[in-house]
Structure formats: structure tokens, C-alpha cells
Amino acid sequence: MSPEHRSIPGWAQRERQADFAWIQQNLDVFWTVVTTALEDAGRGAIVVDTTLEPIPGAGNPFDCFSQEQIEEQGDEDTSRLVFECNPTQEFAAVLPKPDDHASTYRVGTVPRSPPGARAYESPPCRTAGHTPEPEVEPPDVEKLMT
Fold first, then answer.
1. Does residue 2 lie within any of the structural domains?
2. In the structure, what pLDDT confidence band is assigned to residue 117 with cuts at 50, 70 and 90?
3. In degrees rounded to 5, what are phi and psi of residue 111?
């Protein structure tokens, strides 16, 4: 059964909603880090260790990993997700969790639209992109998490 058609247990749904809210709270930082890493290393993912908070209230350790580093980990689903992201409008976020599992999300952006125009969601792209133009604003996670 494909991932989008699997039944998600209640605990996983609650964890996912908590992750969405947490990503939304930290979105400005993540988007800045990801777009800078894109310039340096190309396509990849931000990995945020949600199991550690070295200084309470000061956040969690994170880093960006290249597509090659992600592929070396051997997780086919995460590798596919990173490959499918359009790095000019999306990023992959990997959140390691207790008990040696991780949640991986694809976070997308919506290009700014003129007043009165409807925003649209860009489909995934399998080609390498370029650094986002200034008119791309940080994503709205509730609408765009996939």
C-alpha cells in the first residue's frame, strides 16, 4: 500500500500535528538555513534532533545534510522525498525521535501573489533548482505539509 493510503494510528496523527505546529513555530529559522545550505551544497534536508535541547528553551541542535549524505543513511523513503523536493520552493525536514525512529516531512512554499489573486501550490519537481527569489515568502505549514 502506498504511504499516502496507509492508515495512521492515533498516536502518530497526534505526533504529526505536534510536529506541524513545531515546524511552523521554527519556520523562519529553518527556511533561512535551508536556502543558505542550498547555495552551498545543493539539494538536501534539514535534520533537527528533537530528542535534545541542550539549553532549555533555546532550541534543538540541527544541521543540513546533502542529498548524498541522506542517501548514505539507507532510508529509501527519506531519500525519495529529498529527491522529489523542488529546492526553490520546498525543503525536507527530518526529525529524529526517541526510540530510534524519525519523522520526515516535505514542507512547501507558495509564491507571493498580487493582491486579489489566488496563491497556488507548486507540484514537486525532479530537477535541480536555484536559490529562491526574494518574492518567495516562508511557507504556511498548515496548508502545505505533504
1. no
2. very low
3. -60, 145
Burial of residue 47 (CB within 10 Å: 0-12, 13-18, 19+) is: buried
The answer to whether residue 77 is domain-embedded is yes
Q: pTM (2 decimals)?
A: 0.66
Which range marks the domain in which residue 75 is found?
A: 8-144
Q: How far is CA 37 from CA 29, 42, 67, 108, in A?
A: 12, 7, 11, 16
* Structural domain includes residue 103: yes
For residue 103, give the nearest of 2, 11, 27 by alpha carbon.
11
Residues 53-101 pLDDT 10s? 777 777 788 888 989 999 998 989 999 989 988 888 888 999 988 888 8
Question: What are phi and psi for residue 12, nearest 5 degrees?
Answer: -70, -35
Any domain includes 99 = yes
Q: How many independent structural domains does the chain possess?
A: 1
